[in-house]
Amino acid sequence: MRMGGTPSTHKMILENGKRFDGRALDELRPISIQAGVLKRADGSAYVEWGDNKVLAAVYGPREVHPRHMQNPARAIVQARYNMASFSVSERKRPGPDRRSQELTKIISEALEAVVFVEQYPRTTVDVYMEVLQADAGTRCAGLTAASVALADAGIPMRDLVPAVASGKVEGRVVCDLNREEDNCGEADLPMAILPRTGEFLLLQMDGHLTYDELMQAMEYNFRALKVIYELQKEALRKKYATAQLEEPVVLPKPEEAPAGEPGRGEFHEGADEPPEEGAHGPGEPPLDGPEDHEGGA
Ligand code: ADP
To answer: N or C: where does the chain have the smaller number of CB atoms within 10 Å of the terminal CB?
Structure first.
């Protein structure tokens, strides 16, 4: 949470009980997770979460340099959280700062608790998180992406790590703060768990919450984490999905071509007829565009 941000010029919780971006108090922003997006990393993931865009890449397990950092009993997990200069509205000075060092530390600790580090003594598992566009909740998006990237790299781990930050805005507890809510709100509660056991891997709190508000924010977080966990698994399933024949299959008979239509050996790709009404080429937008055309007559 960035305290002391510019106060909002408008109300963030509207009369109808919705938030300024149209969400209900207990709604997540749209999230998409993709596994295996980088060819040269051992594992990778890309997360879009509201207006956040975060890339995670994993290398390892590989030899530790400098060697004095090696642990003869287990692997070390070295994560690095970095925010690109162009990820925020005013150019951010490149390189590590206190904030990124803190996030690097808490994310490394969370990940080290899930990787079976004792299986790879003397090695390091390096996890790079690059925030390409930031809109609050980037530590959570980074951790969510990092654990998918670790799984994508085939690194044995206890579970995936979903993370989310709920908080308080204008006296109301809300799920998954966006940047404006984070900057002008009263509290922020980032949280990550190990879904299989419910163990906490990350729990921070900035600002003030009463006991009841804290319980409410945690409840939102738990519910959101369930959704995010399913998305993480789905992203990995998609990458490794294979189309397969479960049993031997008798080949289907060739279909009889009805009279007048091209038969075998007479394949006419996209013949010279005009396209059907409403049809358009792959990747081309429909000509009429969406209904909510801006300025449309
Ligand atoms: P998180 O991104 O995990 O919520 P913070 O609460 O520290 O972490 O930051 C909230 C948001 O404030 C960030 O996601 C980003 O949009 C913005 N922000 C953080 N650091 C900077 C910075 N140096 N310059 C501009 N905006 C920043």
So the answer is: C
pTM of the model: 0.82
- DSSP, collapsed to helix, strand or coil, labels residue 164 as strand
Contact in structure between 162 and 193 (CB atoms under 8 Å): yes
Q: How far apart, in Å, do the first and last CA atoms of the chain sit? A: 43
Instruction: Classify 130 as helix, strand or coil.
Output: strand
Tell me which residues have their CB closer than 6 angstroms to ligand 1: 1-2, 88, 92, 99, 134-139, 165, 179, 182, 188
List domains and CATH numbers for the chain: 31-240 (3.30.230.70)
DSSP string, 165-200: EEEEETTEEESS--HHHHHHSSEEEEEEEETTTTEE
C-alpha dihedral (109, 113, 114, 117), degrees to nearest 10: 100
Q: Write the pLDDT tens digit of every residue in 241-268.
A: 877 777 888 888 888 666 555 544 444 4
